[in-house]
Amino acid sequence: MAYTYKITVFTPTYNRAYILSNLYHSLQRQSYRDFEWLIVDDGSADDTETLVASWQKEGNFFPIRYCKQENGGKCRAINRGLKEADGELFFTVDSDDYLTDDALWKVAKWESELPKDQNFCAIAANRGTSPTETPNRLFAGQYLDGSAFTRYELNDGNQGERAFIFYTDIHKRYLYPEFPGEKFLTEAVTWDQMAHDGYKMRFFNDIIWIWEYKNDGLTKAGYRLFLDNPQGTGFYFRQKAEFFHYSWKATLGMWYGFTCDAMDRCTDAQIAEYIGMPRLLVWPMKTVHNILQFIRKKR
Fold first, then answer.
1. Backbone φ and ψ of 213, nearest 5°
2. With left for phi above 0 and alpha for psi between -120 and 50, is residue 215 left, alpha or beta?
3. d(Cα 2, Cα 145) in Å, to the nearest integer?
4. Which of 115, 141, 199, 267 lies most in the core, judged by the most C-beta atoms within 10 Å?
5. 0.85 exceeded by the pTM?
6. Tell me: the pLDDT tens digits for 189-231?
């Protein structure tokens, strides 16, 4: 597909009018100009729409496109953004963060240097709490070629996160599954699918994205989001077990952990379905959990 721009900077947002200007102003400062800013408003009840409309009238060198939809969570917003994107590269930037002034210039430069015959789907750069500080583990060398699975090797799940810029055409083949009644699904679902299918990523240590944990952010909500969205959580765990060829011991541990977390929210049938385990094992696992809880309280 022919695209109008090199990069779509995509921002899903929900009630972030109070801070979205930080990202807007960082886009105004970009040294690279071949990009669009696509915003999907996920049902905001604040004045986000009015604010963005005022920015659209300011004569920026980049177009600002705004779409509003019923609140459905970040991954539904990403699905919408992928369908609307008019950039060759798709760069999701959260609404409470912002970019360094040279971020998009670096992205375009790095992409131009990727081998075109090695099945790359994305570039991964660093996020930081400042332009010079990041909790992520740095690696030796100018860059590191790997896949989405490399994230687990770098232990980013226990530290910070990275900025991922995908080829739009490839990401469109990996839309997020949508589960009725649920609004959260980890983005790792599609990243891991790409890695499993043989797609590579090139990682850079350079910090191009500045973030700060917010009280109303997804990161702050932590594991509660996984607990409140058991269908998507079960899907992610099942997929990870399949891709990483879990042993029976690891699989049983996954089933037990999910059962313990979901037993107050789901029926036995739902637990078995969501995590892909035999229903007959749910009751014994719940019983073991309750016995262990009783013993701990007696100590």
1. -65, 130
2. alpha
3. 27
4. 199
5. yes
6. 999 999 999 999 999 999 999 997 655 444 444 578 889 999 9
